[in-house]
Design a protein that fits this description.
Layout lengths: L28 H6 L1 H9 L4 E6 L2 E6 L2 H10 L4 E3 L1 H4 L2 H4 L8 H11 L5 H6 L1 H12 L7 E3 H18 L7 H13 L8 H7 L3 H27 L7 H6 L16 H32 L1 H15 L19 H13 L6 E5 L3 E3 L2 E3 L4 E4 L1 H4 L19 H5 L19 H18 E5 L7 E3 L3 E3 L3 E6 L3
Parallel strand pairs: 2-8
Antiparallel strand pairs: 1-2, 3-5, 4-12, 5-8, 6-7, 9-12, 10-11
Length: 466
């Protein structure tokens, strides 16, 4: 299939983009590998489109919302996934995150019904019930690592909601293996040269294989059990194993190999709990640093759910979410400041023009939530935590792609509605019962790997008196 580009008008004047200073041989590779966020921030300040050089390869950082839209939406057919996501293929295989063109279109069409609004709403009670069970043992003045707590909680929720599986007994081992897989992701190994070198890193590959064995054992067990008892349980796993393409009528169910099913499940399992857990960790960190916003959040929760110590107090339900707009704005603002997906790259399959800059076939374009979400042109005083940036009026006044925590276009995260509802409900459930205060003297460190994890999030629990 020939890719047709949608270039900017011929009269557009081409410009030479600025570049951050780099090493004569390595270009910006060392600086980017050592500090991706710092390098992206520095580049984003230089202009609308900035050229980064990684040895002999060019990558262009496109920071303006119009250019983000051009790459992700308007001319998406001219681009494939970048090297960063290609480097994930040893973990996730060729699932929805990494597949291309027609295969991706079919996969998304098959999986989409599992994320239909009505089906997602049916997961709400599960989300709240698991959250209540998670926080039930918490006690006043108890120290805990909130990031670990959130990773554990969202893992249980995604396994139950999407696969109808209870992984409580194996969650510690699974969590450890997933963390080690993510932490082994090395920014210096995302390009062709880095991936070639990676093949010969015996120790790293052995550790990755061991951790993948833990994850695969769980996933393949789910597949085998469901094939043995193929009754439709209304979850994602049932849909994958009995799916029929709504456009062609072709069956992809029993004809889908275990490996294909495994790739889809691993992709959605990892993505389905990682991003929400990270977003909630940063949300509670920001609330601990902004007491006025936390007080306002608690007032909204108490007004809808009752004072936490009163006889009338109750957990939130799906029907409450429209009455908790500030709670959603808190979650949205946290994902602006600390976006779990902080950057993504696209590899040009044809020449294009982005922001007046010529991008040649084979070159990369980076769009970065970290950069665009902190651009003072759209976000005055960008490092200040202000949930009211997300009132309907404020959102309408900004370009759409000034904020894109879940990407955009045909590659937009398929689980976005699930993540929004989960974040909204979990934040409401926890913040109604407890305040979480950052441990004295601790400053979290950003860990930009596949996602923007904190190194830890030690909190001290404070039971709310209401």
């Amino acid at each position: 299939m020939t890719t047709q580009t949608q270039l900017q008008p011929p009269e557009t004047k081409l410009i030479t983009p600025p570049s951050p200073h780099g090493n004569w041989l390595m270009g910006n590779l060392r600086d980017f590998s050592a500090d991706p966020l710092g390098m992206l921030t520095q580049a984003g300040r230089l202009g609308r489109v900035t050229r980064l050089r990684f040895i002999n390869a060019n990558a262009y950082l496109a920071a303006h919302p119009d250019d983000v839209k051009h790459v992700l939406v308007d001319n998406h057919r001219a681009y494939h996934k970048g090297f960063g996501l290609q480097a994930l293929m040893p973990i996730v295989g060729e699932g929805l995150l990494t597949s291309e063109e027609e295969k991706h279109t079919v996969q998304r069409r098959l999986i989409q019904p599992a994320f239909h609004r009505k089906r997602i709403e049916s997961y709400a009670d599960t989300m709240v019930a698991y959250t209540q069970a998670q926080i039930a043992p918490w006690r006043d003045r108890q120290p805990l690592d909130l990031h670990n707590e959130m990773m554990h909680l969202t893992m249980l929720i995604v396994a139950k909601s999407l696969f109808d599986a209870d992984v409580t007994n194996s969650s510690d081992q699974l969590g450890k293996s997933i963390t080690e897989l993510i932490e082994a992701y090395d920014m210096s190994r995302v390009g062709p040269i880095g991936q070639f070198i990676d093949k010969f890193d015996i120790r790293r590959n052995r550790a990755r294989a061991q951790n993948l064995n833990v994850l695969d054992a769980m996933i393949y067990d789910l597949i085998r059990n469901r094939r043995a008892d193929p009754a439709d349980r209304g979850d994602l796993l049932s849909m994958i194993l009995s799916a029929v393409d709504s456009e062609t009528g072709a069956s992809y169910g029993q004809g889908m190999s275990d490996r294909q099913a495994r790739d889809e499940l691993v992709t959605l399992f990892l993505a389905g709990h990682e991003t929400t857990a990270i977003a909630l960790s940063w949300t509670f960190y920001l609330l601990s640093q902004n007491p006025a916003s936390r007080t306002r959040l608690e007032a909204e929760l108490d007004g809808v759910l009752g004072a936490p110590t009163s006889a009338a107090a109750r957990p939130p339900t799906m029907n409450d979410l429209e009455r908790l707009p500030y709670t959603r704005r808190v979650f949205a603002e946290a994902m602006r400041i600390f976006p779990p997906a902080y950057a993504t790259a696209r590899l040009a399959q044809a020449d294009d023009i982005v922001g007046g800059v010529r991008v040649k076939k084979g070159e990369s374009v980076i769009v970065s939530q970290w950069v665009t979400h902190r651009d003072p042109q759209w976000w005055p005083d960008p490092e200040r935590f202000d949930p009211d940036r997300f009132t309907p009026e404020a959102e309408a006044a900004r370009p759409k792609f000034a904020y894109f925590p879940f990407g955009g276009g045909p590659r937009r995260c398929i689980g976005e509605p699930f993540a929004w509802m989960e974040g909204h409900l979990l934040l409401a459930t926890i913040a109604h019962r407890f305040r979480l205060n950052l441990a004295p003297g601790f400053t979290p460190t950003l860990q930009p790997r596949v996602t923007l994890r904190p190194d830890a999030m030690p909190m001290v629990v404070e039971a709310r008196a209401g």
